[in-house]
Design a protein that fits this description.
Layout: H1 4-11, H2 16-19, H3 27-38, E1 44-45, H4 57-67, H5 82-96, E2 106-109, H6 111-123, E3 129-133, H7 139-146, E4 150-154, H8 160-172, E5 179-183, H9 195-208, E6 211-215, E7 241-246, H10 247-250, E8 259-263, H11 265-278, H12 284-295, H13 299-321, E9 334-338, H14 347-359, E10 361-362, E11 364-365, E12 376-380, H15 385-402, H16 406-420
């Protein structure tokens, strides 16, 4: 029998898939934020993209009504109840003019994140190459990494650089890429695309037999532009593409964990089979409430969209008066803000720490979305306009205090680092 200390050392080693996951880069800022709040400081938190508005009343009422029926307390259906899959098909017909078969081309997921991760598990083998955006929402690369595949970065900006990267990936990847992930409107950058872009993606990927996984979670959060399209509007897209979306942002239902996927029958079938081993689906009353959301009055969506637009304008205009010029996002609930030139040398983590300490404002470091995000921070529009204006005032004071004082910035940054070790 091996010595006890040998057994303990063996048991404490990191497991293979855990070793492939880097330390959570938001942890340092989150820990600093927690300490500040514990000390009684008022932190304005733009970090997590966690909608703060209540779910519309008619959706909550349907949940409560359905939950009172004890028959709904049993196991549900991992594919989603038929009524919700029909509502998903009706949404695609109404919104995009696309006919979806609710039986074979739609599945309910526990939010889009779970669906993406489980499909990654279903279609990945060790050594497979998957193309993922950088910067990107973390589940896009790490769903495949957890599943044992390898990832190769592609740019987010939907221009010739994007298609050149696809060409290089096909030429130089061994084996050939299995799938590509796209996400527009994009988290974190808020980039949007038109139907012509999707048509080029479909044409390229059909030719090279590459699956497309489209994340459309922010399809209904858009401002001053035409409604974002679906890749499934492109003729032939369903031969290769599946699309994920979520109720979280559209209907302010983040904690409900309900979303769906639609598109290619083979991919939907693979996800269905994986999920049949892993879960029994969302709680039936949640699914019934989701039907009420999709089939019911949509003025609540207009109100949610208008709320984010008001917050976007207050933040972008306010930061401009503080000397921080950031692009106004055409969609999503995020502002992707370049780090001001005076602080760019710090990188996104240290700049976020400094902003938290000096202005009492929390943001997400851009590097948390990939190495190409390190020159930015992501600001989530999850505080009301009054709090946004308070944050802007604090940032303006912070910038004024630190302007033209490079040496003091470095000195204070060293102190911040020492405090957070």
């Amino acid at each position: 029998m091996p010595p006890r200390d040998h057994v303990t050392a063996t048991m404490e080693q990191e497991f293979y898939r855990i070793r492939r996951l880097p330390p959570y880069v938001f942890a340092e800022v989150n820990a600093m934020k927690a300490r500040a709040r514990a000390a009684g400081e008022d932190i304005i938190d733009f970090g997590m993209g966690n909608p703060d508005s209540p779910t519309p009343a008619h959706i909550v009422d349907k949940l409560c009504e359905t939950a009172r029926d004890p028959r709904t307390h049993r196991y549900s259906n991992s594919r989603g109840i038929p009524g919700l899959r029909k509502a998903i098909a009706a949404y695609y017909e109404r919104r995009f003019g696309v006919a979806i078969d609710p039986q074979s081309e739609a599945i309910v997921t526990l939010g889009s994140k779970e669906g993406l991760a489980n499909l990654a598990s279903a279609i990945s083998s060790p050594g497979d190459v998957m193309l993922v955006p950088n910067p990107s929402y973390p589940i896009h690369p790490f769903g495949f990494i957890i599943a044992g595949a390898s990832t190769r970065d592609i740019p987010i900006t939907p221009n010739e650089e994007f298609f050149s990267a696809l060409e290089r990936a096909v030429r130089h990847s061994v084996p050939k890429p299995t799938a590509v992930v796209i996400n527009y409107p994009n988290n974190p950058t808020a980039e949007v695309v038109d139907l012509d872009f999707y048509a080029r993606v479909v044409d390229f990927c059909r030719h090279h037999e590459i699956f497309v996984l489209s994340d459309l979670a922010y399809s209904e959060i858009y401002f001053d532009i035409e409604p974002p399209p679906s890749i499934l509007q492109v003729p032939g897209a369903r031969q290769i593409a599946v699309e994920f979306t979520s109720m979280s942002k559209t209907y302010s239902m983040p904690g409900w964990r309900i979303g769906f996927a639609a598109g290619n029958k083979g991919l939907i079938g693979a996800l269905t089979r994986i999920k049949s081993y892993l879960d029994y689906g969302a709680f039936t009353p949640v699914q019934v409430a989701a039907v009420a959301a999709l089939n019911g009055p949509q003025d609540c969506v207009d109100e949610i969209r208008a709320l984010y637009k008001e917050r976007r304008d207050a933040l972008v205009d306010g930061l401009a008066t503080a000397g921080w010029n950031v692009p106004s996002p055409p969609a999503t609930m995020f502002v992707w803000a370049p780090i001001p030139p005076a602080f760019r040398h710090l990188g996104s983590v240290d700049f976020s720490k400094l902003l938290l300490r000096e202005a009492k404002v929390a943001v997400s470091p851009g590097i948390g979305f990939g190495e190409h995000g390190d020159g930015h921070v992501r600001i989530a529009l999850v505080e009301n306009v009054q709090r946004i204006r308070q944050a802007v005032r604090s940032i303006k004071v912070f910038f004024g205090r630190y302007s033209n004082t490079y040496g003091k910035v470095i000195e204070d940054l060293d102190r911040v680092r020492a405090q957070t070790r």
